[in-house]
What we know:
Layout: H1 3-23, H2 27-41, E1 49-54, H3 56-62, H4 69-82, E2 86-89, H5 99-112, E3 115-123, E4 129-132, H6 136-140, E5 143-146, E6 159-161, E7 163-166, E8 169-172, H7 174-178, E9 188-190, E10 202-204, H8 205-210, H9 215-219, E11 223-228, E12 236-239, E13 243-246, H10 247-260, E14 264-267, H11 269-284, H12 288-302, H13 304-311, E15 314-316, H14 319-345, H15 356-360, E16 369-375, H16 378-383, H17 387-405, E17 411-412, E18 417-422, H18 429-438, E19 443-445, E20 448-450, E21 454-459, H19 466-482, E22 487-489, H20 493-514, E23 517-526, E24 531-543, E25 547-549, H21 551-560, H22 564-584, E26 590-594, H23 597-601, H24 605-616, E27 623-628, H25 629-634, H26 637-648, E28 652-658, H27 665-670, E29 675-678, H28 680-683, H29 690-705, E30 709-712, H30 718-727, E31 731-733, H31 743-758
Parallel strand pairs: 1-10, 1-11, 2-3, 2-11, 3-5, 14-15, 21-22, 24-26, 26-27, 27-28, 28-29, 29-30, 30-31
Antiparallel strand pairs: 3-4, 6-9, 7-8, 12-13, 16-18, 16-21, 17-18, 19-20, 23-24, 23-31, 24-25
Helix pairs in contact: 1-11, 1-14, 4-5, 11-12, 11-14, 12-14, 17-18, 20-21, 22-24
Bound molecules: ligand C2E and calcium ion (CA) (2 copies).
Amino acid sequence: MRPTSRVKILLWAFGVAFVTGLLGLGLPIEDYYRMARNAMRAHPPSGDIVVIGIDDRSLEQVGSWPWPRTRHAELVDRLKAAGVKRIFFDIFFNSPAHRGEDRAFVDAMKRAGNVYLAGYSATARVGGFSEKLPIPPLRAVSRLVSVNVRYSGTMSVRTLPYASNIRGVTTSSLAATLANVAGPADIQFPIDYAIDIERLPTVNAAEVLAGPPGLAERLRGKDVVIAAASQEMGDVYYVPGQGQVNGGFINVLGGETLKEGRPIDLGWLPALGIGLLLAAINLLARRRWVGRLALAAAALGVTIVPCIAEMNLIFFQVIPAALLVGIVVVSHAWAKFRQSYKVRGNINALSGLPNLNALRGENVPSDAVLVAARVRNFAEISSALPPESERALINQIVSRLALGARGARIYQGDEGIFVWTSNAEIAGADQLEALHALFRSPALIDGRAVDLAVTFGVDAGSNRSLANRIAATLVAADEAAAEGLRWKAYDPAKLADAEWKLSLLGRLDAAIDSGEIWVAYQPQLDLASGRIVGAEALVRWSHPEKGEVSPQEFVLAAEQHHRIDKLTEFVLSDAIKTAASFAARNVELDVAVNISARLLEKPGLVSLVRRLLAEARLAPERLTLEVTESAAMTSGRASIRTLEEIGSLGINVSIDDYGTGFSTLEYFKRIPATEVKIDRSFIASLDRNASDRVMVRSTIELAHSLGRSVVAEGVESREVLTELTKLGCDRAQGYLIGRPMKLMGLTKLLLEDHKSSAA
Ligand code: C2E
Ligand code: CA
Ligand code: CA
């Protein structure tokens, strides 16, 4: 991840945490979290403060609220008699009662001399100023303590003030007075709710009034707080972790807190500041361990540190800080995960090589040459291999390619595609030929020799997009394979042609129906008898505007766009009818039809051929299907099965363009073929080229030893024909014997041939 995006994460997280702290959005969670810590730290109160609770039982026994002041006078007398230290009333006496009653109360307080009465003074948000003070006669004989309570945002009480300003006088709060602590007005201190409120010594008011024996022992020397202990009397607050609690108990808990010491409330900002620092270290540290250490410190900071701090009465909020650290950690982890995912998405899982996606993301200069190698039979080979061996296969391919790539990074695509960048000097024809030669020796996988059929596609520098250029090299490699070439350079002029090709395709079906497309027949000569025994059907398109369209061109386009079916059916049907018409005249003619590799892969071909043969009543052995060597090699099991079915029908199978692929003996045996058709590149100068002669001779020997016949194509000279006869070739095809011609021409030729042999 880039540093700028790290800083972005940090700032964003800080923003969220800051707003959370400022608005107190984290307080409910903060409460729950603190409650959990409180549970661990729970401890009893000092026991020096006793609550005299006016609870439901007291109300039942003494009478409903408010009690007459004489009752309170009685209480004071009883408490005085029990020897309490100080008497606090957390009850408001802000309105005069019956005069006699008030006097009794005044007298009792005078006698006791240690009574504190609650007062309250605040600026209410609604309704302006509100104040509740004891009436003057009562105030005169008592001391005043403030019982101002402030709610937090969640309507709960977390803090109490040390003192409040009442009528311009700083009046110590009930809590502070209980603890004998002085503090400035309106300064809040946090209440330590770890003090167990249940264990506050409590006596109900009715009991005090009844004065049972032993009461004095429980009260002597204690401060007592007379307070409501019933929900009915109001004065109820929400205390985190305790639920509804009467205000008196909260004040007492505040007193207990202050007895433990002066608590410090740091709020949320300091923790957030430290959190920011640690998160920054975590994100930006150069060394990994430093970042981890910072994270560990942050983790301690929100767990152990608050526990220890609270034991020392230091309180602070951790949620904003925890939120900050949490956001940073999660988004950092997420960013890292996404990045690693991206990296994984750019790497071939098996070989660890970068894939084409990675190449597309690369900054390749426009004058760089792109080279693609396509191992055409990769899928077939690898599908039969365990992953270990597939890796070994890839390694062997890559180590050969590396010689041609000269140290350039090799990117691996799916299904045996490898691409690298190069420059004009080292991606020339000679280099590619040499690289191609390296693949002539089979790869050794699991002790087995595996033939690799490789073609190369080249895209010389151009300003087109990289993705476009990569695609172009792959197309070129495919075209090289289709045309029986070892490599091919992508021709940008063809790009303009693409449109034309498409419009051609659109017209293909109509062209078949209208007769623009027709079948030419090229005769085949039987070398032993010197007679024309067969013909290869070659499709032709006489386009009204474009003239003769090369079959190379539209056959390839039709194959690529899945439009080859109808075309093949047309040629097959024409060839079979032709052979049948000759058979009807007692002339035996074998017809050969070219079949695209694609058609072998899908079902339907066998039934189509069988149907056409049946319709024309032609013997299956009159028909030969030509499959190119490279197509046969790269074909999968389905294709092999198709060929086997064709063979079992008695139809001949010929391996076309033999020698341009890289079949070895092993492969040759696997393909169910009856015939080998040696490619014209080996035949054309057979009479002058020794290595061609070696190739042709060994092929003939091999084929014959396996019971296959041999056809030579591209015979253009008498010398070559003589040579072929000498080598024991079975049949010959080429311009010398006859160019591809219309059916009429073939008929004439055959009839002449027939006559001459009859003569
Ligand atoms: P192919 O199967 O190798 O066909 C032989 C090609 O060599 C034909 O080219 C033929 O005209 C040419 N040829 C014949 N004798 C000579 C010779 O002495 N010298 C030279 N230089 N060339 C000779 P064509 O007709 O242009 O066909 C090209 C390719 O188009 C064929 O190669 C075949 O792969 C494909 N093709 C033609 N018709 C069909 C078809 O009906 N179906 C399919 N799938 N492919 C076809
Ligand atoms: Ca052929
Ligand atoms: Ca051929």
